[in-house]
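Homework help board

Subject: predicted structure for assignment chain

Our instructor gave us this sequence and asked us to write out the predicted structure in token form, then describe one feature. I got the tokens but I'm not sure how to describe them. Can anyone check?
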Amino acid sequence: MNLAYVALGANLGDPASTVRAAFGALANLPESRVVHCSSLYRTAPVGITEQPDFINAVAALETTLAPEALLDALLDLEQRFGRIRAERNGPRTLDLDVLLYNDLEIDLPRLILPHPRLHLRAFVLQPLAEIAPNLQLPRRGPISAWLPAVANQGCTRL
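My token output:
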């Protein structure tokens, strides 16, 4: 069994309900089991700032799916939730990202693990630290060491 962490985010429609529903959808992924879900967090958009705030969270999954198969399953879920990829960092009904998969480090055209920006984003680090406070980020050390650097990013636990 492998342990994967998945980031969830939404800012269109009713994003809090969408993220909660996505937790349920993750629980129905093949060969996978949700073992932890973080609280929901409200965060300001990054990049394109003229859009609604996001609701973000993180889930921990035990899975036998390979990393790219997990990515495919997450992309399928995004589509089922009405995701349209119009612009990078733009508004979305649901965004699902594989953050970590065991201690695996890979750099593929479709998937980079660990997620290359996870240590720079409060909306990822705070919910991740909530469910895995002792987590060691590959090549970066304890998650707790990265939290002070993102403390000013305006991420509020709901």
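Reply (TA_rk): Your tokens look well-formed. For the description, you could write something like this. The first helix runs from residue 15 to 27. That's the kind of observation they're looking for.
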